[in-house]
From TrEMBL:
Protein's UniProt name: Gamma-secretase subunit APH-1
Subunit structure: Component of the gamma-secretase complex.
Keyword match Transmembrane: yes
InterPro entries: Aph-1 (IPR009294)
Keywords, comma-separated and alphabetical: Membrane, Notch signaling pathway, Transmembrane, Transmembrane helix
Family: Belongs to the APH-1 family.
Function: Potential subunit of the gamma-secretase complex, an endoprotease complex that catalyzes the intramembrane cleavage of integral proteins such as Notch receptors.
Amino acid sequence: PAFGLFLFTIARDPLRIIILIAGAFFWLVSLLLSSLIWFIAVKASDPEDERLQKGLLIFGVMFSVLLQEAFRFLYYKLLRKAIEGLVALSEDGCSPISIQQMAYVAGVGFGLMSGAFSMINLLADALGPGTVGIHGDSQLYFLTSAFMTMVLIFLHTFWGILFFHGCEHRRWWEIAAVVVMHLTVSGLSFCNPLYVGSLVPSYLLMAAAAAWAYVLSGGSAQNLRRFLLCKC
């Protein structure tokens, strides 16, 4: 369902596709930089020290989250400049795409690239060797990983809307809330293999972020009711 966001809301608009690809590229660069720093830290440390290696893993995850949000801010600044250029070139003095639409598309770009990498890692594990659950571990590894990938794609979409709204209206607490939610969801992954401890809170946060993003985008309870009842 998460990848359907692209097919139904973005695929027919060339400008949105460009914004999505650029957003995916920004996320990819943030991952590359954070992975490079974590790799250097691991190589420079003692591989036999399990406590240190776990600490470096936690550091790598937290640093990656902060770097992703920093690149999200840089992307917002870039898109803001792009809107000014589009307005200057247009005949009617209006931008062909609003900042709210850019926020949504940029969020989908971040989410799709994040989901793509999660799926690649999952498929790499599926190649073997070994059988899931053979030593008494949970056999739901692939299923829960798929659900976690989906929630991250949706969360990145909602976070994009919240983050851009905070930047646009200088509500820094909204930006801070996005960073805290991102850190929380990433930190919950350390609860695995207790998958309930990571999936349930993540989906609750997704529901809260979805409702918040819906309200900030101009949605109302009446509009939602009309949509659910398929009324125009």
